[in-house]
Amino acid sequence: xxxxxxxxxxxxxxxxxxxxxxxxxxxxxxxxxxxxxxxxxxxxxxxxxxxxxxxxxxxxxxxxxxxxxxxxxxxxxxxxxxxxxxxxx
Length: 89
Hints:
Number of helices: 3
């Protein structure tokens, strides 16, 4: 069973690097929905990044945070994944 990782940091969105080969696209309407959810309910999922700050999961959340002008976002760092595992995530 995978280890439970519950350590979350808060970092500036500018420090995060979008994964250039991310297959998911986030249309404006979806980013607006995510931004509305964050505004009204807060973040319930952190943005997951590797040790270099490259996003593994959470590109839509980052776009929504930028749209809202947030100066910090919740981030979970993952240094335990292989490149293949990170790409699959």
